[in-house]
From TrEMBL:
Keywords, sorted A to Z: Membrane, Transmembrane, Transmembrane helix
Segments traversing the membrane: 23-48, 55-76, 88-107, 184-202, 223-248, 254-276, 288-306, 312-337, 349-367, 379-398
Gene3D superfamilies: MFS general substrate transporter like domains
Protein name: Transporter
Keyword tRNA-binding annotated: no
PANTHER family: MAJOR FACILITATOR SUPERFAMILY (MFS) PROFILE DOMAIN-CONTAINING PROTEIN (PTHR23542:SF1), PTHR23542
Superkingdom of origin organism: Bacteria
Species whose genome carries this gene: Streptomyces xanthochromogenes
Pfam families assigned to the protein according to its UniProt record, in alphabetical order: MFS_1
């Protein structure tokens, strides 16, 4: 690879990033494949609730899929590391798309409830498209930390963009066309994007033979504290979503909840892009603690807005500001995950981080719902505040472990 000036030293860092041969092609394919991650859950709720008249059943089915993903995703990622992205991602995506279509048929044909759980669980094989894209950037810019920082920031912004657009697209399709439209389009986008992404073989990281007796990245020094930070951060996301929906519903504006939550994602997306263009001076492990501290402080804004004003517009502005610290936290955390993960296990390491986030989202949703039932939606905003504070505590305590050189 030719030597280049670190991208962070240039004002046009993102433009230079995509001048890397093959970068734009795999990014576009990955973007198409990643969009359905925000579509399948919403589409399933529309289908099941509309057909069976039960939001409880719809929620239970989607929760089962989330739990199955947490179990299956690390194994899928391990296969990707062992045999390559193209060989594993395409068949894994085909199984996931088949599961989504099977759910559609089960709903359409009025099959027994248990078939819905079985069908949706098959979507757990969906490849970690964000992780595979980050692995390509890590391979292409392995000797340029500044470029990798910009790339990781871009990837986090894409995650937030898909979080904003996916549910909106799914809801629009299911409402304007027919309840199954979101699932159909999501399955088509997943397969199309994965095939396009896998076709870009020149940027695919080479397969590194797994060392004999190699252990899970979790056993690497400093990796577990990072997973704990991701788990607590996921709880911030999950609780914030549930409490905001309940708060908007209490004001008689439940339909506006999606737009309000999209503002939080928009704040995070914008912050991620700005963070990628910056040149952080602090060492990356100290930077993580600083980002988490900012997140904990900014998460107080929605609580203050809800308690002091009772205005959905003010809350939306508070969420926009609160989102500004989440992307830098995720970008810095993923950078540390890449540094702590043993060679040849990068997809597995990043998927474990995503799994921790999913587990945190599930736990945060449950605790946030309980808080709303027991104390009301206004006080429910204490849950994301406490979750962010827990992430800060874990980050501060674990700093010494993930800051030290990893022992391979």
């Amino acid at each position: 690879m030719p030597q280049t000036t670190p991208l962070a030293r240039r004002r046009d860092g993102y433009i230079r990033l995509f001048r890397t041969p093959g970068a734009l092609a795999f990014t576009l394919g990955n973007l198409v494949a990643r969009l359905p991650m925000g579509m399948f859950g919403v589409s399933a709720v529309f289908m099941i609730a509309g057909s069976r008249g039960s939001y409880a059943l719809a929620g239970a089915v989607t929760a089962t899929g989330l739990a199955a993903t947490a179990l299956v995703a690390p194994w899928t990622a391990r296969l990707v590391d062992r045999y390559g992205q193209a060989r594993i991602a395409v068949p894994a995506a085909a199984v996931a798309a088949s599961g989504a279509l099977a759910l559609l048929l089960c709903v359409r044909l009025d099959a027994p409830d248990w078939t819905l759980f079985a069908a949706y669980a098959a979507t757990a094989t969906t490849p970690n498209t964000g992780g595979m894209s980050r692995a390509r950037w890590a391979h292409l810019h392995r000797d340029d930390p500044a470029a990798l920082h910009t790339a990781n920031s871009f990837e986090q912004a894409v995650d937030e963009l898909c979080f904003m657009l996916g549910p909106v697209l799914a809801a629009a399709l299911c409402s304007a066309l027919f309840p199954e439209a979101g699932t159909l389009v999501g399955a088509a986008l997943l397969m199309t994007g994965i095939v396009l992404f896998a076709a870009q073989r020149t940027t695919e990281p080479p397969v590194t033979p797994r060392a004999k007796g190699a252990k899970s990245p979790v056993r690497t020094r400093g990796f577990a504290p990072l997973l704990a930070v991701f788990l607590a951060t996921g709880a911030v996301f999950g609780s914030l979503e549930v409490v905001t929906i309940a708060y908007a519903d209490g004001l008689g504006h439940r339909s506006a909840a999606g737009g309000v939550l999209a503002l939080q994602a928009a704040g995070s997306c914008a912050a991620g892009l700005l963070y990628g263009a910056a040149r952080p001076a602090a060492e990356v492990s100290r930077r993580l603690t600083g980002c988490v501290a900012a997140m904990a402080a900014l998460m107080c804004l929605p609580l203050l807005a809800a308690r002091a004003t009772g205005s959905l517009a003010v809350l939306a502005a508070a969420l926009l500001c609160a989102g500004a610290a989440t992307a830098p936290t995720m970008v810095t955390g993923m950078t540390l995950v890449q540094r702590r993960t043993p060679e040849g296990q990068l997809n597995e390491g990043m998927t474990l981080a995503v799994t921790a986030i999913l587990g945190g989202i599930a736990a945060g949703s449950a605790v946030g719902g309980q808080a709303v039932d027991q104390a009301g939606a206004e006080m429910g905003y204490l849950v994301p505040v406490c979750s962010a504070a827990l992430a800060l505590l874990v980050s501060a305590v674990g700093h010494g472990r993930y800051a030290a050189p990893p022992r391979r």
